[in-house]
Amino acid sequence: VAPSDVGGGGGSNRELTITWVPLSREYHYGNNFGYIVAFKPFDGEEWKKVTVTNPDTGRYVHKDETMRPSTAFQVKVKAFNNKGDGPYSLTAVINSAQDAPSEAPTEVGVKVLSSSEISVHWEHVVEKIVESYQIRYWAAHDKEAAAHRVQVTSQEYSARLENLLPDTQYFVEVRACNSAGCGPPSDMIETFTKKAPPSQPPRIISSVRSGSRYIITWDHVVALSNESTVTGYKVLYRPDGQHDGKLYSTHKHSIEVPIPRDGEYVVEVRAHSDGGDGVVSQVKISGVSALSPSLLGFLLPALGIVVYLA
């Protein structure tokens, strides 16, 4: 029985990869079973033959530094055992690996988005054999060998790098890649992430019902020396138990939101900075009570009124 589905191609630079489906044990018909792989350039005269002694393998990779990239080869495979050789498979035509890109991406730039994210952009190389782009980045206090890698398709012009350290120097470079490997790196770009967002949450001091709206007030957040300066506040108004709602932005220390028509709502407040959003504080409101329990505890003693809440 001859091996089936002989094919292959691709692989790393200067390689010819040949594959086939291994024969099951019932077709070995003897000991010392293996395969003979034969291949030659499509227009060549002489077959080169290689013995593969592993009976369970279905792959052979031929390396030759003189091999031209993307060259057509004829390949065929047969099995053997201690009694002799079996028949050759049908002859397949495959291509040797293509060359890795020889050009480096140009016009590489970086935009710092926050304390933990940056965006990298570049111009495409003109070679047609580019299948992807690889972005390598590493912190200045780390070794380049420990660089992180992000791979994007050849249609992309940018990539977003996440989970970076705040207030840290990073180096970034971009390479064009294909199945044969990656080409030379672009010019190395140096960048710094922003300081971390504020670590203190806004302290909500009151939640007052006024007509058809609630007025939520909080203390100003003061950033520490190693944190980004507060530029405003983000307020999320959402139904209790849900993650989505209406998002407000304000530079004030208070905001007005509608009284919920039914059920309870949550108002989340967090400081915003160039480094990102800070820690959230929240308060629940509803259309039932004229005043929230927290505000009752704040106002009633001042008025000399004692109440008991069931």
Describe this protein's structure.
This protein is an all-beta fold and 310 residues long. It folds into 3 domains: 4-96, Immunoglobulins (Immunoglobulin-like, Sandwich); 106-193, Immunoglobulin-like (Sandwich), CATH 2.60.40; 204-286, Immunoglobulin-like (Sandwich). Helix content is 2%, strand content 47%. The protein has 1 helix and 23 strands. The strands form 6 sheets. Strands 3, 4, 6, 7 and 8 form a 5-stranded antiparallel beta sheet that branches. Strands 11, 12, 14, 15 and 16 form a 5-stranded antiparallel beta sheet that branches. Strand 1 and strand 2 (15-21) form a beta hairpin. The chain is elongated. The N and C termini lie far apart (86 Å). 26% of the residues are buried.
Task: Write out key terms for the chains shown.
310 residues, mainly beta, Immunoglobulin-like, 3 domains, five-stranded antiparallel beta sheet, 1 helix, disordered C terminus
CATH homologous superfamily identity of the largest domain? Immunoglobulins
CATH architecture of the largest domain: Sandwich
Q: What structural category arises from helix and sheet content?
A: mainly beta
The residue fraction in helices comes out at under 10%
β-sheet strand percentage: over 45%
From the N-terminal CA to the C-terminal CA, the straight-line distance is 86 Å
Assign an overall shape: elongated
Q: Can you summarize the main beta sheet? A: 5 strands, antiparallel
What CATH first level of the largest domain would be assigned? Mainly Beta
The radius of gyration is 33 Å
Question: Overall pLDDT, averaged?
Answer: 89
The helix/strand order is EEEEEEEEEEEEEEEEEEEEEEEH
Report the total helices.
Answer: 1
CATH topology of the largest domain: Immunoglobulin-like
Count of extended strands: 23
Task: Identify low-pLDDT runs.
Answer: 289-310
* Count of discrete structural domains: 3
